[in-house]
Structure formats: C-alpha cells, structure tokens
Amino acid sequence: MVAIDGPAGAGKSTVGAEVARRLGALYFDTGVVYRTLALVASEQGIDPADAERLAGIARTLSLRVAPPSVDDGRLYDVWLDGRDVTWAIRSSEIDRLASQVSAHPSVRQALLKLQRDVARQGRVIMAGRDIGTVVMPDAPVKVWLQASLEERARRRQRELARRGLTQSLEEIRRELADRDRRDATRAVAPMRPAADAVIIETDGRSIEEVVEAVLAVVRDRCECARHGADSSGVASVATSKD
Ligand code: DC
C-alpha cells in the first residue's frame, strides 16, 4: 500500500497512476469519490452546506472507476450509475464543490468504508489528502507531493489547455489557494502530511523524476516492490448501493 497525499495540482494522479503501472498495482484517486458526490449534489440542487443530505447520498453512491475506454487524455473512466462522468467531475464548479462537501465530518465518515474496502483489495496506490493520516494510517509507504502554488497553477493551466479550455493563471491560482485553505483547515481529516510521510518536492522536476523518487521510497520501505509485475495501472473499482 502506497499513500500519496498532497495539495491540488501537485501531480498525485499522474505520478500515482504511473507508479501503479510500474508496480502492477491498482491506482485509486480518492478525489474522484468527493467529486462524484459534488456532481450529484450539483445536479440535484442540494445545498453544499446540507451535511445530512450529502451524507445520505454518500452512503449510497454508486460509482465505478475503470481503465480508460477513450483515448482523450483521461487516466481512467469514472462511471456514475452507468453514465460516463470522467470529465463532468473536472469542471471548476466541481473543484470548488468537492472541497466544500468534503469538509463535512458525516460525509467523510460515510465515504471512509468505501475507500478502505478498495485499500483491502491488495496492492494499491491511493491518492488524496488524508490517505496517510486517516484512510490508510498503516500504509508502509507514505509520500507527500509538494509543489509551489505557482507551479501547480501552471500545471493546471496546461492540463486545461490540453482539453481545449482556457483560464487565466491568476484565476487558477486564486481557486487553488482557496481550495488549499479549505482542505487544510477543516476540522476533520485536514490535508496534511502524515508524521512518517516522505516529502517529495516536485517543483522543477519531471514526472519521470518524481515517479522515480516515489519508487525509491517504495523500494526502501516495502519488500513487496521487488516482486512488482507490469500490468495496467488502473484496475476496476466499483461501489454499489448493495
Ligand atoms: O484530489 P482532487 O483535487 O480531485 O480532490 C477534490 C477535493 O476532494 C479536494 O479539494 C478535497 C477533497 N478530498 C479530500 O478531502 N480527501 C481526499 N482524500 C481526496 C480529496
């Protein structure tokens, strides 16, 4: 088990999916869970402050994460009740809403089991904000990806451009800073590195260099890495109402 935490835009997904591919492990991006809940809330017109209703939906959230079915830059598919919501959960509205809904303790509690069930599926690389501190506190490998606000804003802008979208650096910077503040100051499971996490600075380093840095921590801390197989980095993860 590898826990990868860090702020928005630090490269957790890109790096996590590649590390998973190299180790023949499952990659699970827990942000998807909060984003999907935010999408449902937005579509149903639910007030992001309504913790009780949100937690109710969180308890029956039916989502599936699977290897990419379309070659459009996605790392994986996200299906919600049979609908492909991979890109729908990546809008700036959902960026903001996901951060808001994730601040409710009852919502986090409702989504904890789902995440831990995935963690029990075997080799897993899990990315988020509280993986090393709350979701998998016993993970043998914990890393925290760090990047300056400036660098993260530039990365986000490039990512948007690849999808044909434009947004000013200043606006992206402001949105990321707002999200950092909310994610780091909430009362339950705030975003922070676990005491035993290895901090990896990613500014000025290529994806390959960061992947190598994470693999070095894995090699150092985890015997099982020696037996790594090469296979698809994203295995299917499904939650259901049952
Ligand atoms: O990683 P991301 O940007 O897709 O996450 C979206 C939001 O979900 C983020 O702003 C805070 C929340 N989140 C969380 O609270 N805990 C996690 N483990 C992952 C995401």
Beta fraction: 5-15%
Number of self-contained structural domains: 1
Main beta sheet: strand number and arrangement? 5 strands, parallel
How far apart the termini lie comes to 26 Å
User: Helix count?
Assistant: 9
Ions, cofactors and other ligands present here are: 2'-deoxycytidine-5'-monophosphate
**Overall number of strands:** 9
String of helices and strands? EHEHHEEEHHEHEHHEHE
List keywords for this structure.
5-stranded parallel sheet; alpha/beta; Rossmann fold; 9 helices; 242 residues; 4-stranded antiparallel sheet; binds 2'-deoxycytidine-5'-monophosphate
Topology:
Elements: E1 2-5, H1 12-23, E2 26-29, H2 31-43, H3 51-59, E3 63-66, E4 77-80, E5 83-84, H4 92-101, H5 105-119, E6 124-128, H6 131-135, E7 141-146, H7 149-162, H8 169-185, E8 198-201, H9 207-221, E9 237-238
Parallel strand pairs: 1-6, 1-7, 2-6, 7-8
Antiparallel strand pairs: 3-4, 3-9, 4-5
This protein binds 2'-deoxycytidine-5'-monophosphate.
2'-deoxycytidine-5'-monophosphate binds near residues 35, 99, 129, 179 and 183.
